[in-house]
Design a protein that fits this description.
2 domains; globular
Length: 241
């Protein structure tokens, strides 16, 4: 199985190609918010470095979000275009926060995976240190019904809300949880460096190899998980005329 892995949900564009469970090549941008200009260039670079042809690919693995509306659109449109151009190429998606949590250092602590959103706000989701083995919530087998919604799906964490940290502690059921991902610097300060700090394309490989942590989607109907609508601001430039 040869996979092309695309990470465009977070600030930094990252592309990798893997055969089986081995990453053959990876390129990650040195600067943020350059997905439109970097993505196709990086795809060509990793394919050349790995000496893999586009026709050799079995799957494209895409970071599903939540994340930036614009960058998710760039990744989605590129992945769909490749799948339409190469008959038989399948599209698989991986929840971005799940990929971050899965790559975190294995400890007994609960993990809060985070991604930067708008100012003073991050996307976050809690993950237990050990697999869940009992109960069911809304048809999701293996999830105890008593779990806080932050364990079930990504949520907005608004750091201007009064008592926001206490609410996180209450959701986790403990003060001792590990914060990972690019949102950690907004939450804990610029000197924070819990691994992983970013969601690179290579972090998508392990969940892509597991049917429990990824899913195949229909190319025609797939939409990434935005969580929030696009943030549109009024232009400050003087209109023409």
């Amino acid at each position: 199985m040869i996979r092309l892995l695309l990470e465009t949900a977070t600030d930094v564009c990252s592309v990798a190609v893997a055969k089986g469970n081995v990453v053959l090549a990876e390129h990650t941008a040195a600067e943020a918010h350059q997905h439109a200009s970097h993505l196709t260039v990086f795809i060509r670079k990793v394919m050349d470095e790995a000496q893999v042809q586009m026709t050799d690919l079995d799957e494209i693995v895409l970071s599903d979000g939540p994340g930036s509306y614009t960058s998710l659109r760039v990744g989605t449109s590129t992945a769909k275009g490749l799948c339409l151009a190469l008959p038989g190429l399948k599209l698989r998606v991986v929840p971005t926060l799940s990929a971050l949590a899965g790559a975190a250092e294995k400890t007994e602590q609960i993990v809060l995976a985070t991604i930067k959103s708008r100012k003073n706000q991050v996307f976050g989701q809690l993950f237990e240190a050990r697999p869940q083995v009992q109960g069911e919530v809304e048809g999701k087998v293996g999830i105890p019904a008593s779990l806080h919604p932050l364990f079930l799906e990504p949520q907005n964490i608004r750091m201007l809300e009064e008592g926001w940290w206490a609410k996180l502690v209450g959701a986790a059921g403990t003060e001792h949880f590990r914060v990972v991902g690019p949102g950690q610097q907004w939450m804990l300060g610029p000197d924070t460096a819990n691994f992983p700090e970013q969601c690179s394309a290579s972090l998508l490989l392990a969940p892509a190899c597991s049917p429990d942590n990824s899913r195949l989607v229909d190319v025609a109907t797939y939409e990434p998980f935005y969580l929030n609508p696009p943030f549109i601001t009024k232009s400050k430039k003087k209109p023409l005329g």
